[in-house]
Amino acid sequence: MSRKQWRRTRRQLASVRTWRRRLVFWGGAMLLGAAATSLAWASDWAGTTFNAVVAGRPWLPFLITPLGLMFIAWVTRRLFPAAEGSGIPQVIAMLQVNDEALRRRVLGLPVALGKGAMIVVGLLCGASIGREGPTVHIAAALSYSLVRLAHFPLHVQERGLIIAGAAAGLAAAFNTPLAGIVFAIEEMSRSFEERTSGIVLTAVILAGMTAIALHGNYHYFGSVEVSLPIGQLLLPVLVCGLLGGLLGGLFSHFLVLGTRHLAPLRRAHPYLFAASCGLLLAAVGLGTAGLTFGTGYDEARRVLSGGEGNSWYPLAKLAATLVSYWSGIPGGIFAPTLSTGAGLGAALGELLTSTPIPALALLSMTAYFTGVVRSPITAVVVVVEMTNDHAMLLPLMGTALVAEWVSRHVCAEPLYKALAHAYLHNTGATTGKDPRPPQTP
Q: Backbone dihedral region of 193: left (phi > 0), alpha (psi from -120 to 50 degrees) or beta?
């Protein structure tokens, strides 16, 4: 270390401003972990409560779900319109805008609190939504709010805190630290900057440690122990990759298409539209004996444990998730996507009888997730970390590559990128690089 570098390091170590910034960021990262864990607990309670209330009353969702979605639509439109949907497209969009007022509105604390509350209400109503995508939005908003408590360099304020919060949110939601980092690189920021990597790693570590301290060190779907002999890999990888990529690409295509073409109808009659979506969800739930309500976690966990699946479940869950997203309520697609993929694997068990159903479920989860979001590395890392099954790593990679290729031909633009562009178009925000020169830390 040169004398100049030593003097600079000594000044930073003695700087009150630098230490305040570090302490604020460290405390904020731990708050993210606590918030993600709290939302996980509340979401689990909401799903369990809904199932208990409607058990033995198949008619009740036709009352609860439409009224619940109407209420959520009303609250969201009146109090925090930026909270609708998954939240990941909003976060990606805020990385591209120059409008600071818009960024503060979309990543404001009221939006974060309101989104978390509406996720719980949505699961209490039986909507087919997940909490993981919204956790990314909530965590990014909490992280971005730290600029009010300490002075951060400009590039950290405009990109670093948002990306770090998003990565930490996903890591804490799934207890998948590597997936959080990969997600930040592959999806949240296609041009990941070296100077923001430190705060991303720090946020993921501190948020993850906090979540583990509160929730325990767990695997999202438990430990799955399954492997395939090298001579039996090709057919399952190809079949799961092709069908999962095709189904995932179709889901993305219809989700984007419906979001665009149904938007005028939803704006004109928001509450009637939400109630209609609720009735459709209730009808799909009735047809599947309630399997499509909620996140789909229980169904995926059962399949991964070796249980048999319902051959109609993947299409029914796909439809329920589409309708839930189109309704405009806050809610993510991560957990329902993984559940749909697991259901697809169970259905393929009737075709590929020589392959264990848990192995097919893992391959199909990866393929369908890749087909939906077009982030193959994130898909592989998420599935491996959630199930603690590293023996399937190479087959999962091969499946993800096949699925990504198929999905690219079905849906030309990646899902979150398309939704982010649509969000920017609807808000009339300008994009591009800020003309001001970046500041160094």
A: beta
